[in-house]
Amino acid sequence: MRVLVIGGAGYIGSHVVADLLRAGHQVRIFDNMSTGRPENIFPDAEFVHGDILNVSALTTALTGVDAVIHLAAKKAVGESMADPAKYAINNISGTLNILNAMAEVGVRYFVFSSSAAVYGMPDVSVIDETCPTNPINFYGFTKLEIERFLGWYDRLKGIRFIALRYFNAVGYDVDGRVRGLEQNPQNLLPIIMEVAVGMRPKMCIFGRDYPTPDGTCIRDYIHVSDLADAHTRALAYLENGGESRILNLGTGQGHSVLAMVQETERLLGRPIAHEFTERRPGDPAILTARADEARRVLGWVPTHSDLETIITSTWRVYHR
Ligand code: UFG
After folding, report:
1. Its pTM surpasses 0.90
2. CA 50/CA 32 separation, integer angstroms
3. Residue 118 sits in which domain range?
4. How far is CA 117 from CA 255, 282, 298, 304, in A?
5. CA dihedral 100, 103, 105, 109 (to 10 degrees)
């Protein structure tokens, strides 16, 4: 297929491009390079420097395309609460621009990066797609809002979609094809790595009084190459006539923050300086996915999401 990957120079997007190229698709990347990295742009893909707020650039980029994978979003939860306008404009208006341009040009397939943030603070710790959605931050709200629009664009404009609710995306391409580091990372593993290489003196573990075995939060860490594989499978599913769906992407297995730190120390053979601080507002104690539906619908099975592969693949990119 001819696929437009919007946000294809970003952390997850570049892994998606790598997997699409492996599968033999023709890829055009559309990215405004606000957080995308030049070294993440694959030479075998066409590159268009453009912004989803620019409708005419989008419409031009969609010409000759069969499917769109959209990963161009603002994703810092804390920032979304401080600056909701930025998130409304980029994540909601920008995505509506894409859908409207797709409807105009006649592109029928759409794969959307959604997030476990749509669930908020669920009552259960293992979450399937039928769990109530109740985002507790504006970022999660923008993702849920787009899922709702997608239902309408399917009915009214015939755009079939897969919305993929990622749990905690981690790791780097095991073949070393993606080398661009995220700037100013907010997530746990890149912060651990920055301590490991001396870019920051120490890290904080937010809270040690959660109702978990070691008192720190538990998350479902999914390797970004496994996420990428799910996108390639989603395209095949849509091309084969599959109906629109929303799917969780996680392993179903949780790891605590302390376990992530200790496992990194063990694998790297060096200490990660850390201290325990107050809980971070809005952090649920345990978030893990039930991802049986993605297995059933897409035949998707994570193969890189063991902690050793996650940590060592990330380390190879940080340690150079
Ligand atoms: N954490 C620390 N110290 C840090 C950073 C994180 O202790 O310096 C802890 C957090 O408190 C949390 C865990 O590590 O318990 C994971 O935190 P992340 O910020 O890496 O990830 P989150 O689980 O908060 O959120 C991530 C994405 C969101 C997405 C969510 C879905 O960042 O965009 O997963 O599960 F919505």
Report:
1. yes
2. 5
3. 1-320
4. 18, 11, 22, 23
5. 110
Averaged in consecutive runs of 10 residues, what is the pLDDT profile of the chain (320 residues)? 98 98 98 96 98 98 98 93 96 98 98 96 91 95 98 98 98 94 92 96 97 97 98 98 98 97 98 96 89 96 98 95
Going from the Cα of 243 to the center of ligand 1, the distance in angstroms, rounded, reads: 32
- Three-state DSSP class for 34? coil
Helices 94-105, 55-62: axis angle to 10 degrees equals 40
User: Could you tell me the distance, in angstroms and rounded to a whole number, from the CA of residue 1 to the centre of ligand 1?
Assistant: 35
- Give how many domains the chain has, as a whole number: 1
State in Å: Cα 188 to ligand 1 middle. 6
Q: Outline where DSSP puts E strands in 50-149.
A: 67-70, 109-115, 126-127
Listed residue (207, 113, 168) closest to 314, CA to CA? 168
Take atom 6 of ligand 1 and give the residue whose Cα is closest: 188
Residue nearest to atom 25 of ligand 1 (CA): 168
Give the integer Cα–Cα distance in Å for 20 and 29: 11
Nearest residue by C-alpha to atom 36 in ligand 1: 117
The catalytically annotated residue of 87, 139, 153, 210 is 139
What's the CATH number where 167 sits?
3.40.50.720
> Is 139 assigned a catalytic role?
yes
Q: In Å, what is the CA distance from 174 to each residue of 7, 10, 248, 297, 303?
A: 21, 17, 23, 26, 11
**In a mutational test of the pocket of ligand 1, which residue from 146, 187, 202, 251 has the highest number of ligand atoms less than 8 Å from its CB?**
187
